[in-house]
Design a protein that fits this description.
With about 250 residues, the chain is α/β, with parallel strands linked by helices. The chain has helices at about 15-20, 55-70, 125-140, 170-180, 190-200, 225-245, and strands at about 5-10, 30, 35-40, 45-50, 75-85, 95-100, 120-125, 155-165, 185-190, 205-215.
């Protein structure tokens, strides 16, 4: 990560944001665009933490305010997602090296999935930052054991995360996404919008998603318990580990 400047941290869930605020020693709340932005420090870094809100438009607004009103130089986004790829299990973490909107379809004017005006269907965060984030996640996961939740050793994956304004929760929808985008590892509702905003503003970013389910008809674990015992712990541990590597 870049050694100077302010870092924006977007959390997908209130529990994640609260866990982050609990380890920030001096946060101050500032309201913008109907949102609460928490300005402070963590491990000597100047940070702004905020809840992303749900859906692509809401997440894009939050990202834009972070960049324009708070002047963040890079953005980290954490949250949960549904697993799609083979071998992507509950409790694993996916680090995005590409993000797409699975519900973008301006055909026949543009090919399906292509972002009009950009000539791209997938957006990629900086490779060096992605590699650093992956290495950090691997270190964090090596210290986590999920046997109490009936899960195996967590693993890290790197690849495509897809986003859309739909909560994917049935086998039929999953099958459709896997057929259309077989390389996708996880599905959620915000990451690709954040990527597009950062792409437009030329700001480095990273998207990290903990797999909470397989985005199908089967519920594998109690979700509130998973969020409190796994997802929140992952998010804070990963962010803290990243910030420790950086010198003010």
């Amino acid at each position: 990560m870049h050694p100077t400047g302010r870092i924006g941290i977007m959390a997908a869930m209130p529990e994640e944001l609260q866990a982050l605020l609990d380890v920030m020693p001096d946060e101050t709340m500032v309201r913008r665009a109907g949102r609460e932005f928490w300005v402070g420090h963590l491990h000597g870094r100047d940070v702004v933490a905020v809840l992303s809100r749900i859906g692509k438009v809401a997440a894009a607004t939050t990202s834009t305010v972070l960049l324009t009103e708070f002047g963040v130089d890079q953005l980290l986004f954490t949250g949960v997602a549904g697993g799609l790829g083979d071998g992507v299990r509950v409790g694993d973490v996916v680090v995005a090296d590409a993000l797409m909107q699975h519900d973008m379809d301006a055909s026949p004017l543009f090919p399906r999935f292509e972002l009009p005006g950009l000539g791209l269907d997938a957006l990629s965060p900086p490779g060096a930052l992605t590699q650093q984030v992956r290495e950090t996640v691997e270190r964090v996961l090596s210290e986590v054991h999920l046997e109490a939740l009936g899960l195996g050793q967590a693993r890290v994956h790197q690849g495509l995360i897809i986003s859309g304004d739909q909560f994917i929760h049935c086998a039929q929808a999953c099958a459709g996404l896997r057929q259309a985008l077989p390389q996708a590892l996880a599905v959620e509702m915000e990451g690709a919008a954040v990527a597009q905003v950062c792409h437009d503003f030329q700001v480095p970013y990273a998207v990290v998603r903990t797999i909470s389910d397989r985005a199908d008809d089967d519920a594998h674990i109690d979700f509130p318990r998973f969020v409190s015992t796994v997802a929140c712990h992952y998010s804070v541990a990963i962010i803290e580990a990243l910030l420790r590597q950086m010198r003010p």
